[in-house]
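The methods section describes the discrete structure representation at length, but only in general terms. Each protein is reduced to its one-letter sequence and a matching series of backbone shape codes. I believe one specimen quoted in the main text would settle the matter. An entry of this sort, consisting of the sequence and the corresponding backbone structure tokens, reads as follows.
***
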Amino acid sequence: MIADIAMAFAFQFLLGNLSIAVGISVGINLTGTNDQSGVFKEHKFLGA
């Protein structure tokens, strides 16, 4: 019983960290902090 609760807690903790990491990487890509995404944003603004 205690092991089941611990497993569920660890699983939710891992999922939470994964979603935070994905959110950070997506945020970096959207803001154009990464060089490649910045180039892609400029191309979008130029209409290419």
Q: What stands out?
A: The mean pLDDT is 70. The longest helix spans residues 2-31.
